[in-house]
Design a protein that fits this description.
This protein is an alpha/beta fold. The protein is 39% helix and 12% strand. It contains 16 helices and 14 strands. β1 and β2 (82-85) form a beta hairpin. It is globular, with a radius of gyration of 23 Å.
Length: 469
């Protein structure tokens, strides 16, 4: 089978997952393959006639699809040569931004300066129960801190994450704990590894995974790398979820308790209930669950509703510092055993030093001051955007670390390149869609200090004026 035959097979397969007019379905299939890296930059697409015959559509349908892809900046026509795929932004590329004045592209804690640091004793950081540091499940003290007070009271009598008494006898820590016993927590190298372990345990090549749209780009990358077909559905609609479960019979549903990129806190109880009824596992990403503002109720853990089929993913990266690379997953047996096996295959164990340091930091840093500071930074960022970029629109984020902004009449893949020329890194909306949509959207972090946010907005304003003149 030749290269074009392989491409046609991939296109036919992805066409079944698309919706809309024939040309929109074909364009979506090609965009999906490009975003997944299955069609690489520089690839020459089959001719309009050959592709039309191969997939059973009209030549006009193919021409319209190619035109749409060219208008979206995914492809270009070369006179006398054909239609070629261009390079596209990648989610992993956000962490390789290079030298910019201000980086709004990554939804991360910008630096650890907000932390109360513990006295560092290297000998204590290296002192772990096993001696050798290869503790597959993770450091016992950290796992106890990550569990809830109620769970721990019956086991050890100690106080969990939500009730830690920081140095000086202050009020409780306020961090949203894992909601399980310490023995049900597997420490990971960040939430990203937790999602990857869930994919290894639940997904096989060719399976479907149901996600929202938009969805966290890092998770989309994980599921695509696992060979899954990522299918979008409106997860806030019980009817849409029920229809998608029946139609696609997914291997898993991936949900985010505080949405990344939008910052919304969607009602998702029905997702767990419907998935449990259909015997479909749920992967719940609670990385941002502790960061809700303005009196927004904290999101309810879905594992309570689907206890034997939910993998819960958490992380300290959004409340302490991402550079620690400490996260966790929880699940009931036998699913937890499959996650542990996948963890052992991946890296044997999470760094013992990082875990010991994370436990010390967790004890000394209640989340409320950082959450209050983030709320102030969010308000400052939104005020600056409203003042200098009034054409942009957004919904005020109820949680998280970023704002999901709409830029009318703008291809944000191209605008992201223009913004970089003015010293600002941003994340285009196409990175957060299973089929490359949201090309008029940007995810902008509001977590930077106000002075740096002001520099970023000034650079974006210059880029916006240049882009439209």
């Amino acid at each position: 089978m030749g290269r074009e035959d392989n491409l046609v097979t991939l296109v036919r397969d992805r066409l079944r997952l698309q919706q809309g007019t024939p040309s929109r379905r074909l364009a979506g299939a090609l965009a999906d393959l490009t975003q997944a890296g299955l069609i690489t930059p520089g690839t020459r697409l089959p001719s309009e006639r050959d592709l039309a015959q191969a997939v059973g559509v009209s030549r006009g349908t193919v021409a319209a699809a190619f035109n749409a892809l060219c208008e979206e900046g995914l492809c270009e026509r070369r006179h006398g040569s054909g239609t070629y795929v261009l390079g596209t932004p990648s989610f992993g590329g956000l962490l390789q931004a290079g030298a910019v004045r201000a980086d709004l592209s990554t939804s991360v804690v910008p630096d650890p300066s907000h932390l109360v640091l513990p006295p560092l004793d290297p000998a204590d950081l290296l002192r772990v129960p096993s001696g050798h540091g290869y503790d597959a499940m993770g450091d016992p003290r950290l796992r106890a801190l990550l569990a809830t007070p109620a769970a721990l009271d019956s086991e050890t009598g100690t106080t969990g994450v939500a009730g830690v008494r920081p140095r000086g006898g202050e009020a409780g820590h306020g961090y949203e704990g894992a909601g399980v016993l310490p023995g049900e927590i597997l420490v990971t190298a960040g939430a990203q590894q937790g999602i990857d372990l869930a994919a290894r345990a639940l997904v096989r090549p060719g399976d479907r995974v149901l996600v929202g749209d938009p969805a966290y780009g890092g998770a989309l990358s994980v599921f695509r790398r696992a060979g899954a077909h990522v299918v979008a559905a409106d997860l806030t609609s019980p009817a849409a979820v029920e229809e998608a479960l029946a139609r696609h019979r997914p291997a898993a549903v991936y949900v985010v308790s505080v949405d990344n990129p939008t910052g919304s806190v969607p009602p998702l109880r029905h997702v767990a209930e419907l998935a449990a009824g259909a015997d479909v596992p749920v992967v719940e990403d609670r990385t941002l669950a502790a960061l809700v503002y303005d009196g927004t109720p904290p999101p309810e853990p879905l594992a309570r509703l689907h206890p034997y089929g939910t993998v819960t993913v958490g992380s300290l990266s959004k409340v302490l510092w991402g550079g620690l690379r400490v996260g966790w997953v929880t699940a009931a047996e036998p699913l937890l055993a499959r996650l542990v096996e996948a963890k052992l295959d991946a890296d044997l164990a999470t760094s013992a030093v990082s875990q010991r340091l994370a436990a010390d930091l967790l004890e000394r840093n209640p989340v409320e001051p950082w959450r209050a500071e983030l709320a102030r930074r969010r308000d400052h960022c939104l005020a600056a955007l409203a003042a200098y970029l009034p054409e942009w629109t957004w919904t005020r984020p109820a949680g998280g670390l970023s704002v999901w902004a709409r830029l009318p009449g703008t291809d944000t893949d191209r605008f992201a390149a223009a913004a970089r020329e003015h010293g600002v890194a941003v994340a285009p909306g196409s990175l957060f869609s299973p089929d490359g949509r949201h090309r008029d959207r940007l995810r902008l972090s509001f977590a930077l200090p106000p002075a740096l946010t002001d520099q970023a907005v000034a650079g974006l304003t210059q880029a916006w004026r240049s882009y439209h003149h």
